[in-house]
Amino acid sequence: MELDKMDENDWKYHGEGNKSLVVSHSQHSRVLRLLKYPAENAEYAHQTTEQAFRHIQNIVDFNKNVMRPLLGEKYVHHGEAVKLPLDFVRQLSLKVQQERPESRCDKVMDTFSGCAVCLPNLTHISSCHITEHRPSLCIEIKPKCGFLPFSRHVSKEVKRKVCRFCMHQHFKLANGKWKRMSRYCPLDLFSGNKQRMYIAIKHLLEEPQNNFRIFKNGQLIYSCKDDGDLNELIQQLKPYFFPSNGLINGHQSSKAVLNELIQVITGALLSSWDSGRTGEPRKGLPSEGRAHCEASLLHRDMLRNGNHCLPKDCVLSKILQAQMLDSLDIEGIYPLYKRVEQYLEEFPKERSRLQIDGPYNENFLEKVKNCPTEDDGSIEYAVGKVHQYRVAMTAKDCSVMITLAPCREEDRLEPDMEIPLSKPRFTYSVSILDLDPKPYENIPHQSKLDSKIVNYYLRSVQSKHEPPKASLYLGRDCEDCTLVFHSV
Ligand SMILES: O=P(O)(O)O[C@@H]1[C@@H](OP(=O)(O)O)[C@H](OP(=O)(O)O)[C@H](O)[C@H](OP(=O)(O)O)[C@H]1OP(=O)(O)O
Ligand SMILES: Nc1ncnc2c1ncn2[C@@H]1O[C@H](COP(=O)(O)OP(=O)(O)OP(=O)(O)O)[C@@H](O)[C@H]1O
User: Fold this and answer.
1) What InterPro entries does the database record attribute to this sequence (predicted)?
2) pLDDT number for residue 129
């Protein structure tokens, strides 16, 4: 890609989140990730190119030097900071505007700095070992927080029983962010128990919100949008899972297609280098202590069904370990944040030594890894815990991309390149994206949001005696957890 010969016609809108907009190249397997800012916020437009580039470089450094060592080299692609011609960026912004969802148009793309991150397009797979040329499938999951807080600082008992995602659903519905409640529970996805994972993915398929997307050949084919139709998805998926099977059809076949899809996703999420080789997962993070969420829609039998482990080094295990760096919960972190603030008021020059705003280098990672376990009253302890909390927040908001390419019987693949025990055969890759550093300044906001979510949940579920999500659906779903999709 020659930066001085950029043509907006080579690029198309790919997707966006709250902070960035992504465009993909029509020939090369690359994407550009450009930052966005609130339309009314003129401050960004006035930052110098150097400041904007520093900001982008900070994101790349955080990915490369902090998240990559923690999550694993094979999962994290840090990309590179690039400086694009301003004319190209302005034309691109005009070109993509009509494709953008209305709900995201409260922010505008940065057309002033020309700075962006260039990354591999993770919806594609590069494998020279396969002879099949059907387009790749890519499943994107934003799993969110997979454990209940275990900190002694937690003041509301409900936080130890109901997970943040499930409580947050009530608040989101009340605020109009979503119209329908998601029945997905992250604790089920992270459980390592295949039945629970199955139900979790099924709920993501039923109500994807911003937690689930499917791409075919790099094009979004299923998401929260109205055109995310399950029937259409099944038609698109059938050739992958039942390429020549005319025997099953109708409702049964739809169920079978989704069943296969979920099995393959589960296989990719649980696979680690070792399990690929031996077919047997090496034991890793046990689910003990992570228990289950009382709002989840699971049958008691399924929960009683023993403790399960996430295989060591599988993508979910890596993400969960990083999330669990939040050992104090926001309730324990907020007082430490205030300790840091007070210290910085007295000694403002210490801000750079303590690496409050980076640089995100090996030293920063050391501070995250070697933070004292007991509070000795020091500023080092407070900063170390705040750094750990910010890393955990990033891991709680990242996404996983599973990219699959069908392969033929005759294709020769290393065991770790193939979804274990899957028929039909798929080669695959798993990546983690959206690993930006969460701003230090956001901590007071996190503290307020936490109280709002918990208080709203308690008010809506307990005071009004509304049945929790679980009892609303028990019975309808749980008799047969091998698959009870509603007819489509
Ligand atoms: O606070 P949460 O859990 O709602 O997470 C926010 C996400 O909302 P979600 O609940 O996943 O729909 C939110 O996602 P959406 O904009 O809702 O798609 C962002 O990812 C936000 O991160 P940032 O401020 O852009 O860096 C996320 O904020 P952080 O808390 O990660 O900073
Ligand atoms: N390297 C990549 N390859 C393919 N698609 C990508 C890549 N990076 C991002 N995307 C797509 O673009 C979307 C938006 O990117 P991203 O999640 O990084 O945005 P964000 O604004 O940081 O999100 P958030 O709302 O979580 O803050 C992703 O959900 C994903 O579908």
Assistant:
1) Ins_P5_2-kin, IP5_2-K_N_lobe
2) 58
Residue 14 and residue 388: Cα distance in Å, rounded? 32
* Integer Cα distance of 247 and 245 in angstroms: 6
Cα-based torsion angle of the residue sequence 57, 58, 62, 64 in order, rounded to the nearest 10 degrees: 20
Q: Phi and psi at residue 15, in whole multiples of 5°?
A: 170, 175
Cα gap 194→136, rounded to integer Å: 25
Token pair 């007295």: residue: 346
Residue 27 neighbours by CB distance under 10 Å: 7
Adjacent-strand bridge partners of 141: 212, 400
Q: Which of 397, 435, 451, 452 to mutate to test the pocket of ligand 1 (most atoms within 8 A of CB)?
A: 397
For a ligand 1 pocket test, name from 18, 19, 142, 319 the mutation site with the most ligand atoms within 8 angstroms of its C-beta: 18
Tell me which ligand sits closest to the C-alpha of residue 326.
1
Beta-bridged to residue 118, according to DSSP, are: 32, 80
Q: Which residue has the tokens 């999709």?
A: 485
Q: Which of 182-191, 262-271, 289-298, 478-487 has the lowest mean pLDDT?
A: 478-487
Strand 399-406 relative to strand 285-286, pairing: unpaired
Ligand 1 atom nearest the C-alpha of 209 is: 12
Q: Return all residues near 190 (Cβ < 8 A) that are at least 6 apart.
A: 143, 146, 147, 287, 290, 310, 316, 320
- Ligand 1 pocket residues where CB is under 6 Å: 17-19, 168, 210, 393, 397, 438, 442
Cα three-residue angle 121-122-127, rounded to 5 degrees: 100
Helix (H) or strand (E) holding 219: strand 219-222
Paired strand residues for 356: 358
pLDDT digits (tens, 9 = 90+) for 321-349: 999 999 999 999 999 999 999 999 999 99
Say what the ipTM of the complex is. Answer: 0.98
Q: What is the pTM of this model?
A: 0.92
Distance 33 CA to ligand 2 centre (A): 8
Q: If you write DSSP's letter for every residue of 346-389 in order, what string do you get?
A: H-TTHHHHTTBTB--SHHHHHHHHT--SS--S-HHHHHHHHHHH
Tokens of 33: 């990730």
- Say how many residues make up the chain: 488
